Amino acid sequence: MSENSANGISRFAVELGVAALTGAFGVAVCWGSLDIGAGWTEMGPDGGYFPFYIGLLIVFGSLVNIAQAFLKHRDTGEVFIDAGRAKVVASFLLPLVAFGAIAAWLGLYVGTALYIAATMLFQGRYKWWIALPSGLGVSAAFFLIFEIGFQVPLLKGPVEAWFGIY
Question: What residue stretch is flagged as signal peptide (predicted)?
């Protein structure tokens, strides 16, 4: 390992992690397919036949990626992401995770308004009197476009119920 690998996450670790995640996804697909039947009957394939083999292909691809990681990146010490860049990625990823949690709890429109306003305020360094109306405006535009224009209801929470929007 080189000195650079101590300053960030190694490419080898990321390759193994992603291959393990995709492998676990493939195993989950296979497991779920077995629950609904992955065999062949006199009427043809069961409902899980095709997904089972897709899951096997995903597991196989993950195993190939693990082998390639060991062959190509194990002893190189190559850095995938350093601490400085990880902070920049986290500054966008963590608010998105918070948006998902808030949207699931308070509804998509409230979550969108808070996310837009907070992103403009903290990352864009806008003043609050610009950020807050912008967040509310985007949320209102989404409501007009989806709920009224396309008549596609989006996830609503207690705030919309309080206003009688359902």
Answer: none
pTM of the entire predicted model: 0.60
Token pair listed for 42: 């006199």
Residue 55: count of CB within 10 angstroms of its CB: 22
Both structure tokens of 20: 């393990």
Question: How many other β-carbons are positioned within 10 Å of the β-carbon of residue 146?
Answer: 15
Instruction: List CB contacts of 1: < 8 A, sequence separation 6 or more.
Output: 10, 75, 77
Query: What are the boundaries of each domain within the chain?
Result: 3-77, 83-163
Average pLDDT per consecutive 10 residues, the chain (166 residues; last block may be shorter): 62 95 97 89 87 96 96 87 88 91 92 95 94 96 93 84 75
Q: Which amino acid is at 117?
A: A
> Rounded distance, CA 76 to CA 104, Å?
42
Four-CA torsion 147, 151, 154, 158, nearest 10 degrees: 50
Q: Which amino acid is at 12?
A: F
